[in-house]
Write a structure and sequence with these properties.
The chain is an alpha+beta fold. The N and C termini lie far apart (about 35 Å). The chain binds zinc ion.
Amino acid sequence: MTDMADNTNTKLIAAAFEGQKKSYCPYSQFRVGAAVVSEDGKVFSGANVENASYGGAICAERTSLVKAVSEGCTNLSGLAVVSDLDEPITPCGICRQFLREFFAPRTPILLVSQSHHANANRRDTDYAGEVVIKTNIEELLPRSFGPEQLG
Ligand SMILES: [Zn+2]
């Protein structure tokens, strides 16, 4: 990975933790944050937004994507997802399909443990417990249906 990619990933993960602070989750208490970056470097963070009508809840991944797309950014080059868990969480099925619409098969998706944030002020040698899984939509949603099928 190049330094430029590292810097973008660091920025993206920080934005996902920033987004998480705005989580509206009075029912689950499960705070999720996400951030997407456009090819021209714009970052859009998001959080999960729940609703008293539970089915109306929107995940952090889709919040960040909708923010980007509604601002005219559909060329996206990365996503980071964070929660309060020590193990990284993965996008739900609906979010995977939503990501499929705008992400190339191998656009990087970073799934990040809470400890990454806890270690934000770490020394270079102090990465205890930190986990960042790098995946993509090809892995998360194999043999998927997408825009190409509709011509
Ligand atoms: Zn989801």
